[in-house]
Amino acid sequence: MIPAETISLRVQSLAREIESEIAGCQNLLVVAILRGAFVFAADMVRALDLKVEVDFMELSSYGDSTQSRRRVEIVKDLHTDIAGRDVLVIEDIVDTGRTLTQVLELLGARGPARLRSVALLDKPARREMPTVADWTGFEVPDEFVVGYGIDYAQIGRNLPYIGTVLFTRS
Ligand code: IMP
Ligand code: MG
Q1: Residue 126 lies in a domain
Q2: pLDDT given for residue 66 in this prediction
Q3: Is 95 a catalytic residue?
Q4: Active-site residue (options: 95, 134, 142, 151)
Q5: Which of 4, 29, 45, 72 falls 20 to 30 Å from 57 in CA-CA distance?
Q6: How far apart are CA 3 and CA 126, in angstroms?
């Protein structure tokens, strides 16, 4: 669906947009949402010409199926106190919007100076919450995607491109 070279070019252009918006930020804290955002975040922090700190948060939403659970739980919280900090949340894909909505609510309650978000993919067809990331890499159709950090039942995260899963009867 999205070749590696296309992703790489988009990461660079997103980095330029984020830099110009976050200009003047002294010490940006990047919060990568595990596990799906780890590849995107690794490329994004290297594309950003800013001084950054990196922390990770893990949430559960999908389990090993394609059905989204109703609630998002914190499996691993940040090490960093974000009060007064400029924070950039990095997410892999915004689907129903529940995960990003709850992450932004949760982190927003901790008093950051600025709270911004970037998602590699946006699947607007399945949206249940109005939330959109401040920056989005690509809009994708209502298909189950894998690769570039994103899994199907934990498989496919190491694919360098974004592909779709074909579900067949067996
Ligand atoms: P949301 O809470 O429904 O927006 O879902 C966001 C999370 O669901 C993402 O962080 C992904 O981990 C997962 N997800 C949503 N769509 C897909 C997909 O097509 N493939 C793999 N994971 C997905
Ligand atoms: Mg995820």
Answers
A1: yes
A2: 52
A3: yes
A4: 95
A5: 4
A6: 23
Residue 38 burial (C-beta neighbours within 10 Å; 0-12, 13-18, 19+): middle
Q: Is the CB of 62 under 6 A from ligand 1?
A: yes
Domain ranges, residue 122: 4-164
Phi, psi of 146 (to 5 degrees): -140, 165
Tell me if 36 CB under 6 Å of ligand 1.
Answer: yes
Mean pLDDT of the chain: 93
Q: How many domains does the chain have?
A: 1
Domain with residue 134: its CATH number is 3.40.50.2020
Tokens of 44: 């994004």
Amino acid (one-letter) located at 48: L
- Work out the number of other CB atoms within 10 angstroms of the CB of residue 73: 10
Tens digit of each residue's pLDDT (9 = 90 or more) over 27-85: 899 999 999 999 999 999 999 999 999 999 999 865 545 554 457 889 999 999 999 99
Tell me if the pTM is above 0.90: yes
The whole-angstrom separation of Cα 61 and Cα 87 is 22
Q: Is the CB of 144 under 6 A from ligand 1?
A: yes
Q: Would you say residue 170 lies in a domain?
A: no
Residue 169 placed within a domain: no
In terms of Cβ atoms closer than 10 Å to its own Cβ (0-12, 13-18, 19+), residue 136 is buried
